[in-house]
């Protein structure tokens, strides 16, 4: 095995080992679009366009993945969404 192949193999192993989770935001009949958008900007650091698109997907599809990362990174963000009255979970 050449050095280049060995290095490539090590990089691929490191990439596969990362376990990414997602925050899933669910639709509800309580919160307004503006509240959802503002909360996504604050909690998940979305741009206005990202937040609007997620809000529309949640409304029409029933749910949307709004943030990916490690479990430890997502817990405080998901907590902010829940404290704001949104329905979300980490999967």
TrEMBL record:
GO biological process, one term: proteolysis
A Pfam family per the record: ClpS
Record domain Adaptor protein ClpS core: where: 18-84
UniProt cross-references to SUPFAM superfamilies, sorted A to Z: ClpS-like
Keywords from the named record: Hydrolase, Protease
UniProt-recorded Gene Ontology molecular function terms: peptidase activity
Claim: Hydrolase is one of the keywords in the record: yes
Protein name: ATP-dependent Clp protease adaptor ClpS
């Amino acid at each position: 095995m050449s050095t280049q192949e060995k290095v490539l193999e090590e990089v691929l192993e490191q990439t596969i080992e990362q376990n990414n989770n997602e925050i899933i935001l669910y639709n509800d009949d309580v919160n307004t679009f503006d509240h959802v958008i503002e909360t996504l900007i604050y909690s998940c650091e979305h741009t206005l366009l990202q937040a609007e698109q997620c809000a529309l997907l949640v409304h029409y599809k029933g749910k949307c993945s709004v943030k990916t990362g490690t479990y430890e990174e997502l817990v405080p963000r998901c907590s902010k969404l829940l404290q704001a009255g949104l329905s979300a979970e980490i999967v």
